[in-house]
Every structure is written in structure tokens, then in C-alpha cells.
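seq as requested:
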Amino acid sequence: MGRPTYQRIADTLRQRIITGAYSPGERLPSRQALADEHGVGPRVAADAVQQLVAEGYVVARTGSGTYVRPRPPVRRLTRSWYRESRGGSPFRADMAAQAVRGGWESTSETLPAPDGIAERLAIEPGDQVMRTRYVFTGDGEPVMLSTSYEPLELTRGTAVVLPEDGPHASRGVVERMRQIGQHIVHAGEIVTARPADDDEADRLQLGRGAVVMVIQRTYYTQDRPVETADIVVPPDRYELAYMIPVDQG
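C-alpha cells:
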């Protein structure tokens, strides 16, 4: 069974937006004009446009029409172990370098480690972890998500048990773990892409089904992993730059 007619029209309009046939800020043809072009009724044309509104490609302005959503500037996130090891917030430093006010909101809670997280942390499924969910912002707009997990067997009863509270709040994983004798020696990242789930789309103000990059990051001491996180990045807003040291010795 083929795709519904309104989806085929939405596919055509989406392709025109992606290829630049319709420029950012440009007004789309009226529903009637689209209906005439595709030989359908205005209701079908309206459904096609609504599909693009839901996906975040266009915005509807009451009494004015529907316009191609302006593309946000693509900013850079630098992934570098050496920047992490100096302390502070690499994200905030990246934003400041691009004249953007960087910040974040977070919530933390303890819970049993899900199977996949337990495997990444080399602990038993069900062992307690501290989960912290972040929404990172640039000039007040949501730009990146992160969900981190730390084993409570390491941090319980210490000054760093809450990543964003206490004397070492917001200092980053490397510096916080150093305070409790856990010296991180390397980090690993796996980068994949997938459609955002509904919660991620809502928190990042994306259209349903938008593709996001996912960075699966884990910090290790000489003996064990001590933190793991899933970082969700919209690729139309950010590019990842990896700084890889080369041993000259």
C-alpha cells in the first residue's frame, strides 16, 4: 500500500526545502496553490503542510501563511580529553568562544542501573547509580541533552555524590572524581545517529522524527569505568570536532 497523498506532497515540499528551492524565511505557496499544483483538495494540501510544521521544517503564522523555518547557525563542540582534564565546563568554554551564553539545567536521582548502563559501568544490573539529566542551552535556547550515570558505590556519602550540587558542583567529571581519589586516565566515545524520541524532540524543540547524533561517552580510571553518558546533539545545530593528540616521543 502506497503512502497517503498528503505525505507524498509533504515529501516533495520537504525536498524543496532541503535543496534550497524554498529558502529559509520564504513563504510557502498557499494551500489552494498547492492543491491546484498537485490536483488534490485544499484539505489534503493543508495536511501536507501540517506534516512539515510537526517535523519542524516550517512555521505557521496566523493570518500570514506558512514560512520555511530559518536554519540555526551550526556551532562547534570540541571533543578533547585534554580540555576535559583542565577542569571547568568544556561546553561553556565552547559557547563563550562563539559569543554564545552557555548554560544548563539538570535533575539528579538514584535508581537501579538498567542492563545496558550496568554493562558500560562494569557493575551488576540493579546496582544503584546516580542518574543526572541535563538540558544544555545556548543563549537560553535548548541545544543539547545529556543523561549521565555514576556508580553510587563510588560516590555515596562523598562531597561529589550530586554532580550539580555541593562544593565541586559543575566542575566536570574528571575534576569531581579526582576529589574522591578516582583518577581518570582516558575516555571513550561512540557516535551514532537515530531518530529522536518524543521526549527528546520536545526538550530540544525538534520536529517529530528528526535525526539526532548520539555520543555514548564513558570515563575510565586505570581500573574501571566511573561514569557513562548519552549525549544527544541535533546535527543541524552542532558539528563535532575531535582533537586527537599525537605522541611526538
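Residues 5-19 form the longest helix (15 residues).
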